[in-house]
Please model this.
Amino acid sequence: MTRLAHFLDGLRCAACLTLNVLWLDPVRAMVECRACGQTALIACDIDEGRTT
Model:
């Protein structure tokens, strides 16, 4: 089984300051730096900003 991950082009890691090494994993709701291994959880807006 392959993981669904998206490369985040043009963004820099806040920990190691390396450019173009961040990957978004929407299944685990996190971003990971492939250079230093730093991870960050993301908040998902299920409603996508649509409120009534």
